[in-house]
């Protein structure tokens, strides 16, 4: 059950709903999208290749432009990218599915699934719950304060579970959990870890058992198979400068997955109910807005997913970024259209993805985006 919003949050959501009453514009055409993709790659130097997938009740199709890397083979629907923080909605789907099956409760304090050495401090007696972690209101800082990577190009590779426990147990909260949205990579990383302890398997196995196996997503994983590695796009941190791939063994639930556009279209389609799968109930529950985002009346957050009410659209979405990749998935419930965008760039292209849903969204001069 969704908890009632405080009056301030309810007001913000109502304002967001009013902003969404604008007449919905048509999505950008395939030709327009390809022109945008070409400009982003060739003029803005946002990586070497971009793939956009579109899905609706009639089916799906893919647009691709560019190459796997400098002088590489062309990109296509099966090209593999790091999807970064889109991993968070996989973590949210697992949480929602476990809750529907009675394996956890959304209101459970996370400490119930952690060793005592990892218990996060309470503020005013309010424990951090699983829902708090997934909906980004835990109050846990986004980046662990004890992160000290040996290799700054792969910053989470040597961060350990013991370090995560020490950080979570030792940080000093400044407010109670549930009070305010504040995006936390570490918070969702902790959630993913807690769910693995509850399930008794590692995160990659948990994702395969609960999501990618049932949905037939054979190109979505953490560890690259030889076939996936052959299809992996080279990431670029800056134009012409290849970036290292990122590994995050202790914090996998926040951003460790790699995938292809073809696989992500299956995931987006399942979230849209195209077709309905055994995960659909859990997915729908995760889409429901739970908290407003302060200062952004058009934006709210569910379990993992963000919800944007603007230009006549109701878009459920998340984006992702690692050292050399930027990605986006989302779907507009007002038009029944979904989108996947994959890029091997240091710059985001959320604007192109949103125009694939509704051309009223503007193109934006791209800037480097943090994870």
TrEMBL record:
Gene3D superfamilies: DD-peptidase/beta-lactamase superfamily. Residues 1-25 form the signal peptide. The keyword Hydrolase applies. This is Serine hydrolase. Residues 48-351 form the Beta-lactamase-related domain. Keywords: Hydrolase, Signal. Belongs to the beta-lactamase family. The keyword Hydrolase applies. InterPro entries: Beta-lactam-related, Beta-lactam/transpept-like, Beta-lactamase-like_AB/R. SUPFAM superfamilies: beta-lactamase/transpeptidase-like (SSF56601). It comes from the Bacteria. GO terms for molecular function: hydrolase activity.
């Amino acid at each position: 059950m969704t908890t009632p919003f405080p009056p301030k949050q309810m007001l913000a959501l109502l304002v967001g709903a009013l902003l969404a009453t604008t007449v919905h514009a048509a999505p950008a055409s395939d030709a327009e999208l390809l022109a945008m993709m070409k400009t982003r790659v060739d003029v803005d130097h946002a990586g070497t290749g971009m793939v956009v997938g579109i899905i609706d009740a009639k089916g799906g199709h893919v647009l691709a432009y560019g190459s796997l890397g400098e002088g590489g083979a062309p990109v296509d629907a099966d090209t593999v990218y790091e999807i970064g923080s889109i991993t968070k909605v996989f973590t949210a789907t697992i949480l929602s599915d476990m809750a529907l099956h009675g394996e956890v409760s959304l209101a459970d304090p996370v400490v119930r699934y952690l060793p005592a050495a990892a218990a996060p401090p309470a503020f005013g007696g309010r424990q951090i719950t699983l829902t708090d972690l997934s909906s980004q209101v835990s109050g846990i800082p986004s980046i662990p304060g004890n992160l000290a990577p040996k290799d700054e190009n792969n910053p989470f590779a040597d961060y350990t579970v013991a370090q995560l426990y020490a950080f979570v147990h030792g940080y000093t909260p400044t407010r109670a959990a549930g009070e305010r949205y504040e995006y936390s990579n570490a918070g969702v990383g902790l959630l993913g870890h807690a769910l693995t302890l509850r399930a008794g398997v590692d995160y990659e196995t948990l994702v395969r058992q609960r999501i990618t196996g049932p949905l037939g997503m054979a190109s979505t994983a953490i560890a690259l198979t030889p076939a996936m590695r052959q299809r992996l796009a080279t990431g670029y941190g800056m134009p012409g400068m290849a970036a290292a791939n990122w590994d995050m063994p202790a914090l996998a639930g926040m951003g460790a997955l790699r995938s292809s556009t073809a696989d992500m279209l299956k995931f987006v389609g399942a979230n849209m109910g195209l077709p309905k799968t055994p995960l659909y109930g859990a997915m729908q529950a995760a889409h429901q807005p739970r908290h407003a985002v302060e200062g952004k009346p058009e934006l709210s957050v569910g379990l993992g997913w963000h919800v944007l009410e603007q230009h006549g659209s109701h878009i459920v979405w998340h984006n992702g970024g690692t050292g050399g990749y930027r990605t986006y998935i989302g779907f507009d419930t007002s038009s029944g259209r979904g989108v996947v965008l994959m890029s091997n760039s240091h710059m985001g292209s959320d604007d192109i993805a949103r125009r694939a849903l509704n051309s009223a969204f503007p193109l934006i001069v791209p800037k480097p985006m943090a994870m």
